[in-house]
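Marked as duplicate of an earlier ticket. Keeping the data here for the record.
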Amino acid sequence: MANAFPLHAEQGVNVSQFFQVHPENPQPRLIKQAVEIVRKGGVIVYPTDSSYAVGCRIGEKSAVDRIRHLRRLDDKHNFTLVCRDLSQLGLFAKVDTVAFRLLRTYTPGSYTFILNATREVPRMLLHPKRRTIGLRVPVHPIAQALLAELGEPLISSSLILPGEELPMSDPYEMRQILEHQVDLVIDGGFGGLEASTVVSLVDDEVEVLRVGCGDPTPFAELA
């Protein structure tokens, strides 16, 4: 895929680091180094069980702004908080009984759930009118290892570049195109070409907002 649009280097960002991490048994040393980059306010590219994502630490406004610039996102974009498990997810979303049953059944997995946010979620991540947030619990061992080491969610967005419909999948191409845009690219092998399936559980209503690699059928039947 050719880089068909200009990506200007961010001030203060040198050539990104590139870690080759085993997709099933992530090396603890590399995971610790990756998390240190996140804790210092860095932006990283990492694999999930759907596609590659670009992420940063919660509350890092400058890093969030860099992701917005990279993806050309406006303030109506719902960022996703990628969480380690349901208990962590519950800190950031208002989960009623119906939603909890669905979350317990379909997490971890290739779904992003839109829920009403709690006050723990920074205002800069919320939809400006609806106070909603996307939340996800991934299966991928690298993503899970990062979240376990970090001890908090990653603010994330699918790695879909402006003008493209599909997520990037080749880590070497990511390194070439994004080497001045992010601080780290984690190579966990080729990624998927579909983002997660997005399901809204806001106000007791179930609605499939985007069909991705997660099977939408169980939620379409409830809509």
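See parent ticket for discussion. The longest strand covers residues 52-57.
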